[in-house]
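Figure 3 (text version): structure tokens given as input.
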């Protein structure tokens, strides 16, 4: 996804062959974070890791996002809150997916 200010956002889907934590739960549609305008203007890039739980309706909760810059963490949190995950992919023996994860990479180009 390209921002209006020339920044690029790469969203890498987590590997389905990862360890038990984090678990892979497919999104109905990939999260769509917005590249923060002030960061793009200043040429700032960042890589973020997110961990969260998913309820039986497919909504993320207990969000924990680690980025170097808070402005990117806010962008990731907003995107995840708006994302619906596939609840049919959850293990029915659990109350929801625990420790799901999505990595985010914000890169300025040019």
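Below: residues designed for each position.
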């Amino acid at each position: 996804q390209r921002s209006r200010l020339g920044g690029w956002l790469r969203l890498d889907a987590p590997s389905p062959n990862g360890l038990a934590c984090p678990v892979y739960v497919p999104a109905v549609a990939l999260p769509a974070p917005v590249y923060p305008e002030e960061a793009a203007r200043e040429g700032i890039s960042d890589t973020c890791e997110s961990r969260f739980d998913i309820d039986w309706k497919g909504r993320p909760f207990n969000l924990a996002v680690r980025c170097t810059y808070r402005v990117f963490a806010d962008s990731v949190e907003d995107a995840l809150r708006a994302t619906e995950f596939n609840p049919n992919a959850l293990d029915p023996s659990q109350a929801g997916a625990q420790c799901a994860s999505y990595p985010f990479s914000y890169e300025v180009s040019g």
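The chain is about 15% helix and 30% strand.
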